[in-house]
Amino acid sequence: MDDIVKLMPDYDKNFGVKMQYGIESLEDMQKRMVSILTSIAKVTEGSPTLIVSHGGSINALLHYITKGEMGTGKGKLANTSFTRLQWSNQTFHVQAYNETSRLKVT
């Protein structure tokens, strides 16, 4: 992300802007994430499924799902954090975001 921000300082605010330098647009990343996760949710019929992805794509997805309330430009995901989504009525709902409680040693 540091390299992207050097090339495009406002990258996280560039919705609707054609990307340069071969960088995937935020909208294209959202479309790709929504398409893939919708396909998986339909096949698994909403059963619990673990999907591992990069924080940038998770944030783009969250931005789409929450209509900009969460995700890209709204915060940074902690490394190895969990974001839980529920699939119901043909759409995703955020159940947990940036969950790190399992990382704490007791």
Shape: globular
Straight-line distance between termini: 32 Å
SSE sequence, one letter per element:
HHHEE
Q: Roughly what percent helix?
A: 25-40%
* Major sheet summary line: 2 strands, antiparallel
Short description:
With 106 residues, the chain is an alpha+beta fold. The protein has 3 helices and 2 strands; from the N terminus they run αααββ. The chain has helices at residues 2-7, 26-44, 55-65; strands at 82-88, 91-99.
Question: Which structural traits does this protein have?
Answer:
106 residues; alpha+beta; 3 helices; two-stranded antiparallel ribbon
Describe this structure in words.
This protein is an alpha+beta fold. The protein is built from 3 helices and 2 strands. The protein has helices at residues 2-7, 26-44, 55-65, and strands spanning 82-88, 91-99. The protein has a two-stranded antiparallel sheet with strand order 1-2. The radius of gyration is 15 Å and the shape is globular. The N and C termini lie far apart (32 Å).
SSE order and pairing:
Blueprint: H1 2-7, H2 26-44, H3 55-65, E1 82-88, E2 91-99
Helix pairs in contact: 2-3
